[in-house]
Amino acid sequence: LRRETTSIRGIKANAEGQFPTMIEKVQIVLTVVQGSELAPKDRNFLGKRTSSDPYVEIWSNNKNMAKTKTKFKTLNPVWNESFTLDFSKKPSSSSHQEYIVLKIWDHDSLSRPDAMGEVGLLIDCSKRKDEYSEWIEIPPGSAKNAKGRILVKLSVQLFRSQALVRGNVFPLETNQLRIGLAWDLRNGRDNVDLDVSCVALTNSGSVSMADTVYYANESNSNGSVLHSGDEKEGDEEGDDETISLSLSRIPPHILAMYIVLTVATPGMRIRDIKSAAIRVYDSARGITLCAFSPALNTRSQDATAMFMVRIARNQDQQSHCGWILTPIEDTHPTARDFGSLIPYMKSYTRDLNPSIHVDPTERIAICRKGGNIRIKDYCRGGKLPDLITFGLAWDVTSDKDIDLDASVICFDKGLNLIDKIWFRKLVSDDQSILHHGDEREGDELGDDEKIDIDLTRISELIEYVGFLVNSYSGEELDDVDKAVCHLFDPKTMNDMALYAMTNDRSVDGHTALLVACLYRGGGTWHLQIISHPTLGRTVTQNVSDFRCYLRKSPPH
Predict the structure, then answer these.
(1) With pLDDT > 90 as the criterion, what percentage of the chain qualifies?
(2) pLDDT tens across 196-252, in order?
(3) 135: how many CB neighbours lie within 10 A of its CB?
(4) Residue 268 CB burial class (10 angstroms; 0-12, 13-18, ≥19)
(5) Among 69, 230, 497, 525, which residue's beta carbon has the most beta carbons within 10 A?
(6) Residue 488: half-sphere exposure toward Cβ, Cα within 13 Å
């Protein structure tokens, strides 16, 4: 944090020649000096109230922040004690006022303290900066027989951070970076789900899902990038979601990382979440590098996603800074996750590698948030392949062999069971679906289990093709290391949909997952993203679960 507005290398001034800043923290130094003619609470030997043992508690936001020492047998105490009070401010906050309450008590060693009164201090931090003193009358109604006054001294210090503004460039002189996303309940009551993701692109320009962290994949391949987990309401203190980066440990094949903000709540847009705030911290030095309020950006008015910043390797060999942070602030009107934004990120990276090929149709459905997609929209060139594959992968966990199973359930229009394809029945009756066999340990390279689906051979009787994952060995799905399932084109190896289960709190306590369902519509195949956790160690235990889900939430 910087007390003054100062220039750092690469920061652009605004039209007035000033460098944009935001109030990051307010620090108030409050000195409780003395009291005068306070209310007597203690009786003398004749039974008359003549004295008190006063002390003062300092409260703000319903929290007891500090307390003075007790001064015995006096109605005119002199404390002369100073307290430093820190108040964090969200970048979107328009209020520069802080409210502090001084509660005066009479100490009693044998019973509860007696209230002697309280005073409230409404401090306008934007106007009060130099130290000032003030005698404050104690309202008679603030406690029984309350009276007197109290002398306080105040000084206010504003701590500012550079505002995140398009066109600014931040050479990162740190190896420890943290991205914080904070927001509050909308109107103080409506839950809102925002997500922050870190999408990693390789030197060749491809997206590395193993090094991309988001709500369902909380660690990259070597633990150098970590996500705090999905927060769905915005009711946490401080940052609701964070991404921590150890830049010196980022795998060498990663060229750039993009921080993307998305609104997962249907019907909501960035402009609706006025309290949303993004901060970039230098974790090593404990300072804020820059901050941003997405809802205040004019580009966010009709947007559901925003490209916040790019963190890229420094191409200047003469610089001692290994990474550069660049604000982007572009938006997308409909995206609810980063899966449909891949072409944009590739385009942004062409200044680092001009040979990167950008396919406007490239995208991947991030299975978790629900919804329906037309599969060909997630295929290269917009063409649906004849053969697609459902893959399931996991690793040996805590030196224990774990048995997960991938299965397929087929229903007709009336949701009558037509077929089950699993480790005890590897081929469907119509020969369109082939299970490659049971893997019981999770020690294979790539996918541990695969199921091929030939869309051209699926029986006309089949309306729904459901994908299911079971933990046959009984482990909860979120506890299995690097558990992920995906739907992909086996010829191009292009992912169409992906679900990461490890550390996903929504599957905590569950041994089965209804992943997704293929269904017919408009002469082509669609995919309903279900992501519904349940219990069951084999597919036979979950047929009714799948049927009930489709009956309650039919694809549309």
Answers:
(1) 46
(2) 999 999 999 999 988 999 987 888 989 999 998 766 544 455 688 999 999 999 999
(3) 11
(4) middle
(5) 497
(6) 16
* CB 343, CB 498: distance < 8 Å: no
Q: Given the structure tokens 């804020």, which residue do they identify?
A: 288
d(CA 499, CA 47): 76
Tell me the longest C-alpha to C-alpha distance in the chain: 103
State how far the Cα of 95 lies from the Cα of 23, in Å rounded to an integer.
Answer: 10
Q: Are 178 and 244 in contact (CB under 8 A)?
A: yes
Dihedral pair phi/psi, residue 47, rounded to 5°: 85, 5
pLDDT band at 4 (very low <50, low <70, confident <90, very high): very low
State the Cα–Cα distance between residues 266 and 337, nearest whole angstrom: 12
Query: If we measure between CA atoms, which residue out of 328, 7, 323 comes closest to residue 160?
Result: 7
Which residue from 85, 82, 97, 86 is spatially nearest to 153, judged by alpha carbons?
82
pLDDT beyond 70 at 67: yes
- The 10 Å CB-count burial string (b at 16+, else e) for 347-374 is ebbeebbeebeeeeebbbbbbbbeeebe
The residue ranking higher by pLDDT, 367 or 316, is 316
Would you say 275 and 235 are in contact if contact means Cβ atoms under 8 Å apart?
no
Q: Give whole-number Cα distances, 212 to 216, 243, 352, 489, in Å.
A: 10, 11, 19, 21
Give me 384's structure tokens.
């649906």
Distance CA 115, CA 111 (A): 12
Q: Which of 341, 322, 326 is nearest to 214 (CA)?
A: 341
DSSP 217-258: B-B-TTSSEEE----SS--SSS-SEEEEEEGGGS-TTEEEEE
9 near 72, Cβ under 8 Å? no
Residue 35 has pLDDT above 60, yes or no: yes
Q: Among candidates 404, 371, 138, 153, which has minimal Cα distance to 266?
A: 371
DSSP designation for 547:
H
Token representation of residue 526: 């669609």
CA angle 389, 253, 262 (to 5 degrees): 65
Mind giving me the DSSP string for 405-437?
EEEEEEE-TT--EEEEEBTTB-B-TTS-EEE--
C-beta separation of 480 from 397 below 8 A: yes
β-pairing verdict for 494-500 and 365-366: parallel
Burial (Cβ within 10 Å: 0-12, 13-18, ≥19) of residue 94: exposed
Strands 305-313 and 464-471: unpaired
Could you give the CA distance from residue 63 to residue 72 in angstroms, rounded to a whole number? 26
Beta-bridge partners for 372: 528
Say how far apart CA 90 and CA 183 lie, in whole Å: 9
Residue 105 burial (10 A CB sphere; 0-12, 13-18, 19+): buried
Sheet bearing 194-202, strands edge to edge:
170-172, 323-332, 305-313, 254-263, 194-202
